[in-house]
Specification:
Keywords (chains A, B, C, D, E, F): NAD, Oxidoreductase
Order of helices and strands of chain A: EHEEHEHEEHEEHEHEEHHH
Shape of chain A: globular
Helix content of chain A: 25-40%
CATH architecture of chain A: 3-Layer(aba) Sandwich
Strand content of chain A: 15-25%
Protein name (chains A, B, C, D, E, F): Uronate dehydrogenase
Pfam families (chains A, B, C, D, E, F): Epimerase
GO molecular function, one term (chains A, B, C, D, E, F): oxidoreductase activity
Organism (chains A, B, C, D, E, F): Loktanella fryxellensis
Distance between the termini of chain A: 49 Å
Oligomer: homohexamer
Largest sheet of chain A: 7 strands, parallel
Structural class of chain A: alpha/beta
Number of domains of chain A: 1
Largest interface: A-E, 28 and 28 residues
CATH class of chain A: Alpha Beta
Chain lengths: ~280, ~280, ~280, ~280, ~280, ~280
């Protein structure tokens, strides 16, 4: 059992799911986000409001931690300046503070959008080259390369989890391949925490879907074994899905709607529109 | 649900298995073959006799179709002239008519014999180079390359299913690795039809056999998940199997007896002889 | 020195270049084409008019030959029926007659258009998958697979030379990468003839151009070492070249204009138009 | 059913586990080891004491055998001279006697230590280059290359099983990935015996562990399907595991403690010390 | 001939070398840097002082340009904040302004330090994964991924030149492999400008050194053919070189001294110290 | 300049060629072999008779050496017992003595016969798997794996030079691809000595032949650039060469006659017979 884990982005959708599972893996869980406070703190949980783009604030949060689970960033496409501060500078401060405070490992919420322009008919493994689809995806590429640097030069371990579509349920045809269920997210983060050594690693954050378009074999040693399968939702989802167009990057690329969304503008609206198109 | 699917080779052994499952996936199923008629038509099924080597006949059948499932061809080694007409010219007419009629996708019964000369100790994936074992296999190579051409130049999608040993049961040692059960054939064709976008794809048509010698990972996005396993037949089959010879291509190559059958002559007799050799 | 070599397509542009060099490699050179006769026969050259789509005619020509150099086919995109007879049936008859007459090796004029839809920013080697750009290219794919079959099943060797732009000089920007000079063509065919064993081999037919976009390393044992370089023509050619469009397959794919020419229609006119576009 | 199988190393820990399963696969099982005798012989089992470094002794044991299962060797790091006699000369005599006596196949207990210096964050398949971690591992590399030679030159088949941590239970964190259960060992040897043709093959000897760090896909045709999973022991084992150090080859390499043990000295003591370190 | 080229970093060491060659490739050369002015302007050269981290300033410079040659950035390891502003924000503004102003291509001074932590005994090609050795190298990774994004989403071409050791002469043993002569730099930039289509490309900026440790084959279509060879300096350089240590990343990694320099501190002093160590 | 180099096999054909070049690279050259003495010692050369299978004798020779150039072994196929003592035990003693005496690097005469069973139509690089053709080749595999072990565990560098056909001239058709001229041998050994760091490296020992069937790119950093080309001998050699048979391993495999010579018997006689077969 670890002494202390830090969770960034604890007030976010995914971060919120991780508080209890992480609290069970350590003596002290420190959660942090921009919000002033967090409801329903767990017995061994402490919340500290912090701006991740400010190194001094992050330094304070990290003190004495064994590992940091870094989910604190903008989670959708956004204007460049916002991505720069939140996701690029924010990544730097997290790894730098981790180094200065002797934190051993960063478990990082990377994203499929780091490689979203690859066609989904190309079954890719974790060595596929960076091919971002948005500023958001570009910031994930940056953080992965930063993680590589801190491992090679400073011995800080990182597990970069390229999370696909982490939703409560499956709501569009693309998600039949890309869904990451909430329980599988928890399994993934748990594996990333408990694996004895990880070095610099990349792993796809995706459930055991029949239509999964990526290969997690190279991360096998992490022991992440998803148990949910989007296919149980296939009849409902396909019945209402719009026809797809193989010439359209939205329908052909791993990044889905992010592959066509204009840079700097949100892909969320497009995803929503898409789901009800039929 | 699709409006119209065309099934060629509907009077054949495998084609016959597909009539009911395909009828369930569309409003109108048009079946075709050389035979004058077909017994036991399904409520939404229409049968049209046609010679696939005649473009005008194929044009008529394809009108208004969304997809065509192309099983109409000689299914064994045969003299060159027969293969040329039936399998090479026949493939051209199917893809060309599909293009002219606005058909979106061809689901094609390709074959392991397109790559049958690879040794089975070489675990091959769907990118292994063409290495046909017969004129029959050569015609499958041709059709796959044709499919690639129609996708790159004209945007017609294709799923080339390299079917192995599709039999009701497992009758020889080779089939412990190569068996495709009838239910798994139906699963495969269903996946090839229902996957939203496929581009030009190749997938192995083989069940979930313990001894499967090919890698289907690159076709993962199609969601084909076989459920049968030839291994349940292993005790019976191995008890009566002849000793094998690792220096004999029949016993060492993916193509099995096709790897040694003289070009232009039937491999079927050899397969049958083999099964009872012990 | 070989006893007898057969050259098909001897009346064609490239075939004509090969008569003298081949005559120097054997005691008897038999040249053949559709034309009734050939002017200026060399001392050890015999000409026989023959239709390569007729097996019996080809059988006569091949009798007693050691090797056949097969250049007799349509050399541009053409309607399907023409390609079928000339390039597909014609390839079958050549390899089949070679087998029946005990010919040891087929040296074959394949083409870059067998793989013309690959982007030229992808440096490809001789194992790149077939990706034809035209019916013409498709027929080259067919013949290569046929050559593989005759090697694996019958021990006939083949050298498939994927000839690029074999012209007297360099006349457009694409050719700065793709040019095969006439002297280098002769070097290539000579290497394919004189190499002691070749099995089934593929080699790019391209000069030592600075901008060569393909990798011939896997054919290194053939000893083909081109000596010409299109770059000496770069100043002239680039000065008059039209601006290119990276989104246009014509400008981005290995196949050049063949990557955009409509199937069944000649690409030659387009190439000519292109050269003077500026 | 085979006529005769020979099992070397029958008095050893793993060899002992194989006597009954092998006896069920043949009419006559001949077991051999250095010990003068073996207790509890099975009805169709004959024991012959033999020194595997003496060719004449091995020749006698092999007479009339169909296959030999070769487990007779030092199973831990040892001084060079001991490894040389037992594992290198011993391998030569086994393959040479197999050849002289017409034995068809050698099923060989190779080891993960043939490739133990690869980092375990590198998911390796059976084509990973030799990278031994000890003299012991070096002797396994030697025997694998010897097996390749006897297949290529003399047609003797071999299945080189790279056994990981074959123990009754899971006793340290490394074994969560590397465990080979006793029942899975028996499944593996049975597959290696009963597969009709194997040529020269390599297969990982590891259970179906969640954290398995190697890829057995290329040996798929052998039909080895492990059924045990070390993960059921994870809570107990991780609770008492020492913290690991990603900079330490012991914790980072496939070979585990063998990756740091001094050459020529036993790694067993280090493994034991490690297990109780927490 | 292009209408207008923009050169950033024109007051720098390498930028200065490029002014005349670029001026010869276009009607109008606009040079820019932080300095207030530039001496010895060429007849068709205009200098505009600009801060590349300010989008509006860059927008003005880019107006009407066909291509931009981007050398304007910190060229050594530096503190994070400096790298962030100059190399990361500066890259964003250059590509964004290029997009907004309709510039077709960015020719970018990337660096070997984007992959500097690979061992030099690993011969790497342009697909080797990012493995930066410094914040400087990390910023080059960022810009390459940005270039990939602008190509995939917006059709802006980029040639990322991973420049090695661009010096007037060869002054240390490492440079025997890594030297890029000044004339070869000019050849490289000229090729990157004049190649008709480039898409998103990566090319090593290194001379034709005997000891070159990287593979430029995949960039072959660019036609960059270096003509200088550091080996002529080998006798002098090796005579005064310090002994190297294969366990030291400085001596074993592509990045050389950057592989050991502390993050954020200059590697230049270390390189100089190294050169005279013997 | 190195202080002391040891050369084993100094009385052999190749060893003799290396005495003068090595003497020029160090202050003291110690040569050794089984012979009692060596004629014409160079000024800085000392000869010590030693049996390489005796560790104590090797220890004496190695004292104080910086590097050892290890050519002392049987250089042809021979009976197993002879290969075992001379080439396997002899390799162990050389690396072990090197370790104990603080020698930094072993430059080793490995051989193409470590991979001789690969077909020569497969262009192989230095990562091709071991595929020995003889006991001789097997001993080279062993020494390479030993070299890998001593590098990974003990930091001893090795350059394994896989020497092809090192002869004064080119005497048979195979050698057109495989020749290593004497001057190129010296260039190769010099590069292996003078490269600052090598780790564990493999390099093909072959001249710059037009028909070279192996890829030395991965050893590029060593700076070995051969200057001779067997092709100048092609007219003479091919004129007298026997016809080759592509089904014969002797004519189709990298190992040439070693690919067919019976194990344990000399391949030299076969090579000689072959050269005059025509």
């Amino acid at each position: 059992m670890l002494n202390k884990i830090v969770l960034t982005g604890a007030a976010g959708k995914l971060g919120g799911l991780l508080r209890a599972p992480l609290a069970a893996l350590c003596r002290e869980l420190v959660t942090t986000d921009l919000a002033p406070g967090l409801a329903n703190l767990l017995p061994n949980e402490t919340y500290v409001a912090a701006d991740l783009s400010q190194l001094d604030q992050v330094m304070g949060v990290m003190e004495g931690a064994d590992m940091v689970v870094h989910f604190g960033a903008i989670g959708d496409e956004a204007p460049w300046d916002a991505i720069l501060q939140s996701n690029i500078v924010g990544a730097y401060t997290v790894w730098e503070a981790a180094y200065r405070q002797g934190v051993r490992r960063v478990v990082y919420a990377s994203s499929i959008h780091a490689v979203g322009m690859h066609p989904k008919t190309d079954f890719i493994d974790t060595t596929a080259r960076h091919r971002p689809d948005t500023y958001y995806g570009l910031s994930k590429c940056f953080a992965e390369d930063l993680a590589s640097l801190y491992w090679d030069k400073r011995g800080i371990e990182s597990v970069c989890m390229r999370i696909y579509s982490c939703e409560e349920s499956v709501n569009n045809a693309r998600a039949l391949g890309t869904w990451l269920s909430h329980p599988d997210l928890i399994r993934l983060v748990t594996a990333a925490i408990t694996t004895p050594t990880t070095g610099f690693s990349i792993v796809w954050g995706v459930s055991a879907n029949d239509r999964v378009p990526v290969d997690n074999a190279r991360a096998s040693f992490l022991g992440y074994r998803p148990q949910d399968n989007a296919e149980v939702h296939a009849p409902r989802v396909l019945a209402q899905a719009a026809a797809m167009d193989p010439q359209n990057p939205e329908d052909m690329c791993h990044g889905g709607p992010f592959a066509v969304v204009p840079l700097g503008e949100s892909g969320v609206a497009m995803i929503k529109a898409r789901s009800v198109k039929a």
